Amino acid sequence: MILHVFLGALLLAIPAGALYYFDKALLRSFGVAVGRMVTQILLVSLIVWVLVHYDKVWISLLWLVLLAALSAVLVLRRVKLPLSKFLMPVAAGLFAGALVVGLYLLFVVLPVHDALGARWLVPIMALLVGHSMTTGILGLSTYQSALKADEQQYEFLRGNGTSHLKAVLPFVRRALQAVMSPSVANLSVLGFYAMPLLLCGILLGGQSPINAFVLTLMLVIGCLASSVISLAVILWLSDRQLFDKFGKLR
Fold first, then answer.
1. Helix axes 164-190, 151-159, angle to 10 degrees
2. Residue 107, Cα to own-chain centre: how many angstroms?
3. d(C-alpha 99, C-alpha 9), whole Å
4. Of the chain's two ends, which shows fewer C-beta atoms within 10 Å, N or C?
5. d(CA 110, CA 107)
6. For residue 62, how many C-alpha atoms fall within 13 Å in the half-sphere facing its CB?
7. Residue 175 CB: number of other CB atoms within 10 A?
8. Residue 249: beta bridge partners?
9. CA distance 14 to 188
10. What are the tens digits of pLDDT across the range 96-145?
């Protein structure tokens, strides 16, 4: 295996050689990026090996909680919101979206043998959390920016007797549009770019082509549903942190 890994790594000489010839300044950044990628893949592989080796439901669920919390930290750093106030709402939203959609896929849609086994539970939940994290950054950032930019619109609605829920609906709509617009735009090209990698992995896992097609399609649909559920829960739980008890934007 070491020999084959070494032979595969020799392919890096092609992009490295091109950078050395045309842009030596970028070569160092390329090396650092490759090193980080290898480290991250190795770490993830070791975690997955532990989860699959012990194959306990409670361990997999604990891993999902930790994954949601870590993803929440990344979301909040990108959105620049305080961890102390928004960590729990964002982590709970990511966890809820992945858990609800993931269990529905495993038990109802697919369904698979040993649905709670780490072999199925871990990769599907990781995929759902990862997609929800990406869309959560867009949704939460848009929601926060819209509230700050159009605070007068919110105050006008509240001043005219509109309930808090109805007053924030225009801003929720903007957040949803920010989440769904890129997804809708990318759906037509997923089959040529991102999804072939997932399809290839499923085929290499021993699934037949038709099963791989169905599984890939269901996972794409699941990612869309999970992102909407996660955003709804995040905004709902973050409401008390964004507004005071009188409905004023903090």
1. 140
2. 21
3. 37
4. N
5. 7
6. 8
7. 26
8. 243
9. 31
10. 999 999 999 999 988 778 888 888 888 889 989 988 998 999 999 998 88
Instruction: Pull the structure tokens for residue 207.
Output: 């699934």
CB atoms within 10 A of CB 233: 21
Residue pair 223/131 in contact by the 8 Å Cβ criterion: yes
Alpha carbons 236 and 230: distance in angstroms, whole number? 10
Tokens linked to 122:
């871990």
Helix axis angle, 118-149 to 209-242, nearest 10°: 40
Of 62, 63, 86, the C-alpha closest to 74 is: 86
Residue 151 one-letter amino acid: E
User: The dihedral of CA 86, 88, 94, 96: what is its sign?
Assistant: negative
Give pLDDT tens digits for 166-188. Answer: 888 888 899 898 888 877 767 66
The β-bridge partners of 243 are 249
